[in-house]
Automatic annotation (TrEMBL):
GO terms for cellular component: extracellular matrix; extracellular space. One of its GO terms (biological process) is response to cytokine. It holds the Pfam family TIMP. PANTHER family: METALLOPROTEASE INHIBITOR, METALLOPROTEINASE INHIBITOR 2. This is Metalloproteinase inhibitor 2. It comes from the Eukaryota. Disulfide bonds join C111-C159, C116-C121, C129-C151. Coiled coil: none annotated. One of its GO terms (molecular function) is metalloendopeptidase inhibitor activity. Belongs to the protease inhibitor I35 (TIMP) family.
Length: 178
């Protein structure tokens, strides 16, 4: 899990499929800003499929957008990402998510987050937190729990949602709001 900027992209061959046809990948050269979880070596390149139709992730290579990228590291300065991996612009993260990345999420490494796809759902053990955004917020994977809570281990060994910071108050209404 890293915070990074993509600075360039090029299409590269990454071996052949079972029929001998070349497999193309996009190789993003990145500037790593921070490693939250991963190998001791900085990530230099992120690889993905060449289009979203085959589960590729497209990154802006202008060097201005910062991303939070969670992918699969090879440990040799290379990472692979797909549509199933978490890739978000840094600016789209809530203040709680940013603070939790730096301070809280590591406190929940021993906890398991269970997705609740429809109500009712239950936890099976004390080391689980029930994630209900999908079921409670109309199939929203980026809902209230995801934006404002962290699943952390408590002093008694159980895991629970922790609300570390209230969402910012909106002081001005958008002109388009009714």
């Amino acid at each position: 899990v890293i915070r990074a900027k993509a600075v360039s992209a090029k299409e590269v061959d990454s071996g052949n499929d079972i029929y001998g046809n070349p497999i193309k990948r996009i190789q993003y050269e990145i500037k790593q800003i921070k490693m939250f979880k991963g190998p001791d070596k900085d990530i230099e390149f992120v690889y993905t499929a060449p289009s979203t139709a085959v589960c590729g992730r497209l990154l802006d290579t202008g060097g201005k957008k910062e991303y939070l990228i969670a992918g699969k590291s090879e440990g040799n300065g290379k990472m692979h990402i797909t549509l199933c991996d978490l890739v978000s612009t840094w600016d789209s993260l809530s203040p709680t998510q940013k603070k939790s990345l730096n301070q809280r999420y590591q406190m929940g490494c021993e906890c398991k987050i269970l997705r609740c796809l429809s109500i009712p759902c239950f936890v099976a053990s004390l080391d689980e937190c029930l994630w209900t955004d999908w079921a409670m917020e109309k199939n929203n994977v980026d809902g209230r729990q995801a934006k404002h809570y962290a699943c952390i281990k408590r002093s008694d060994g159980s895991c629970a949602w922790y609300r570390g910071m209230a969402p910012p108050k909106q002081e001005f209404l958008d002109i388009e709001d009714p």
